[in-house]
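Sequence in, structure out. Go.
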Amino acid sequence: MAVEITDSNYAELVENSEKPVMIDFWAEWCGPCKLVGPVVEEMHGEYANRAVIGKVNVDNNPEISAKFGIRNIPTIIFMKNGEVVDKSVGAVPKNVLSEKLDAIL
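Output:
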C-alpha cells in the first residue's frame, strides 16, 4: 500500500527523502481519484526501492494541500531534493505517471 503522507509526517517522509517522491492528492468522494488510486498502488510496488510513492487525503491534511495549492484532484506531484519538478492534474494513464517518475530517477 502506498505510504500515507499526513500533515504530521510530511517533513520526515518527503522533505528529508533521498529518493524522488510521487504524491497523489485525493479524496474519498472523488470519482477520478478512484481511477488513479489502483495505478498509484501498482507503482508503489514497482518503484519500492527507487522512489517514495505516497498519498495525501486532502480532506484530512489541509496544511499539505494548501502548501502545494491543490485545487483540483487527483493531482499528482513529483519531487526531487525537496522541490516540485513535475505535476499531473486529473486522471491520467499509468504510462504518463511512469514516464514522469522515470525522468527524475
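Check: The helical segments are 10-15, 31-46, 62-67, 94-104. The beta strands are 3-4, 21-26, 52-57, 75-80, 83-89.
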